Amino acid sequence: MSGRIHQLIDQVIQVRTHGNPSMQHFVRVQLLLQGIDPTKFSPQSPDDPAIEAKLQEMLKSLT
Amino acid sequence: MTLRVAYTYETDITKATAALKTQLKPERAKWVLYFAASRFDPQHTAAAMSKAFDGATVVGCTTAGELTSGKMLKHSIVAMLLDDDELELVAAEVATPIKDGVESVRQALGRLGQQLGKPISKLGNTDYVGLVLTDGMSGAEEEVMATLTQHCSIPFVGGSAGDDLKFQQTFVSLNGTAHSNATLLVILKPKHGFEILKTQSFKAQTQTLVATDVDEPNRTVRAFNGKPAAAEYARVLGIAQEALASAFMQHPLGLMVDEEPFVRSPQQLKGDAVVFYCAVKKGMELRLLDGTDIVADTSQALAETQARGPIRGLINFHCILRTLGLEANRQTDAYGKLFSAIPTIGFSTYGEAYIGHINQTSTMLVLR
Fold it and tell me: Does B266 touch chain A (CB under 8 A)?
């Protein structure tokens, strides 16, 4: 399977920024500090349960 | 306008708070922030400061050195007072405990929301700013910051309390009570705007270290680039492994965001592993950094900030490692003088806060 991480990153950015572009830098730093570089993942990137769990945790706290 | 700063070297806490009160003239004080050296008993200091500035929200923490306009200090208390002309509102809460999970931070955010009359997540990030002071011996800063950034849209800036390099116990305080194993959260709505300034003195090199084996809870990297961490760090630095620890201060690692490093400072070697002062996550790609001149870089950062508009006051959360570097280079006077014309207080921290927990950095709240 592939693309799950890319999809979750998009969701985190969408929820976290509320569509406000000024928040994008903030969210990018937040992801990088969690060890997740958004630029490294594409829809073709293989799934990774450990990274997905981190992103799910972030999403859970946001919703 | 009432934004005043003061400092005192008085050793008796009653005399010290009296001296601060004389300088700060607290008739209409809304918020008083203080940073006190560890020689002052934290509980007595908190109680005395709250009594001296009765009616104001009084917050503070212990330090590893203090800063005020024009001076770097040791064994002193520095304080800043703001009144209604400067602040539309202030709200503060202490979250404790924090060492074994940060549910207390989520609860404190809820209480702050009740104080403010709306959920903390609804505060606008251009009107409100958060200040965070955390027990510097808690090891909980990453979790605290992750919780704040996940639940809030407003920026938080601050630092970890110190104890003059004794590394035993540090305190934050709110309205007369000092707390260990705690983080202090303050929400401010400045009347004239604010800016957060983050500055560090490093140039990123091309060499990269990817953390491939990490003990995250203990801030320890066992392997970089798939090789024993210490050996690989020394290899990219071009030095013998035996010389690595003595090169840490000048050559920490940076998590690069565009061209700006979020500095991760190594603390010590444990066998082949490298222990850091802040979290390094598995998969993090870090660049080797070379130290540059702290005074020159800070001067430039302040000049750029002043070019965007006048500064009414500044709170500087200044890494203790930067202070040690300035002391080694006999630059403390020069650094203090950078702030001569700006009402400033600050302290030497055990870690700085901005979006996350970072090292060898100054994070500053600039009040416009």
Answer: no
